Amino acid sequence: MTETSIPPRPSSYDKKVGLVLQGGGALGSYQAGVYEALSASEYLPDWVAGISIGAVNAAIIAGNPPQERVTRLREFWEGITAPSALWPVSDGPITSHHRRTSSLTSMLFGQPGFFAPRAPTFWFFGGKVTSYYDTAYLKSTLERLVDFDRINAREMRFSVAAVNVRTGNFAYFDNAATKIRPEHVMASGALPPGFPAIEIDGEHYWDGGLVSNTPLQYVVEYMPRRSRLVFQVDLFHARGRLPTDLEEVTERDKDIRYSSRTRAATDMLRHMHDVRHNINGLWDQLPEHLRQTPEAKFLYNFGCVTTMDIVQLIYRPTDNQGHSKDYEFSRATMKARWAQGLADARATLLASPWLAPMPPEIGARTFDVLRDSHGKADMMMPATSGKGAHH
């Protein structure tokens, strides 16, 4: 093995592989770069789940054969970042002026193959509208780039999340139970008031990020549980510099809001999985007469012997990108984010810290190779694991 080669995946490491994609608008090209690295590894996902722009990337991945996925992702991202004919944006060096111009262009004219502003007649003649933009272009793009018959053939598990506008309930659209259509993907990214709610079977749905910006919990806790290696690709990062002006304040505010919810969800899942191992360990130590008590039987249903490795890949820009970074769709910025995702994923695969033996007392561990150059796992306090085989 050379210094730069990715360690081979041993046959003993038999965890299923999941890919979890967070929402984040224009930042989503980072996820495409991550997938490009995974596509050349021995860790192709068998389950991909996404929210908002993560749902779009997930649909392109699940809706194409493996050898075409990166090409289709690139076609999507290059298509929606094509400069506007009305106000072209330079494809040169990325400056703060470049970013502001690009985001303003997106607000005024939309993005090709993605969304367009409502016609002025809606505003001037009393028409009732519930969004600033029309996303019909996105439906056409999805129909062109995604084979929904392939998704519904269930070769790969596919899940996206949205929020029911009427009830406020979180809903998952999963090809294990639902025939997936473009509308399911669009619903997951229908962020109000910019984008309109999407009607599905008589109900209307908004962006799943209104409730949770990551589908990690759904993948990890789905029953029956399987031991999994999950690549969690986030687009907002918790750590950052102290802001020095109002633009940096608004950018930092957005990062903290979205990343804190993801971080809290990850910490909770890791803690709960270790609790499940504790329950299983205690069950093995109970005498038979105590196992027959209602309390013991109730707790037994929560026990678990599966193990989870959660690998975090987080977009951490090296410069301040402003509060409008998630709708800054310039071609140059898209390419830079894609390249960073590719580099970060390759570095993570080179380290492959999940190949270290799982301590028997641990149910779940998380890795952030780019934050910790040693790839040290972040694990909860040791828990007693048992030998049961339920869940």
UniProtKB/TrEMBL annotation:
Short motif (GXGXXG): ranges: 23-28
Pfam families named in the record: DUF3734, Patatin
Active site: 52 (nucleophile), 207 (proton acceptor)
Hydrolase found in the keyword field: yes
Keywords carried by this UniProt record: Hydrolase, Lipid degradation, Lipid metabolism
Motif (GXSXG): 50-54
Gene3D superfamilies for this protein: Cytosolic phospholipase A2 catalytic domain (3.40.1090.10)
Domain named PNPLA: residues: 19-220
InterPro entries: Acyl_Trfase/lysoPLipase, DUF3734, NTE, PNPLA_dom
GO molecular function per UniProt: hydrolase activity
A biological-process GO annotation: lipid catabolic process
Motif (DGA/G): 207-209
Protein name: NTE family protein
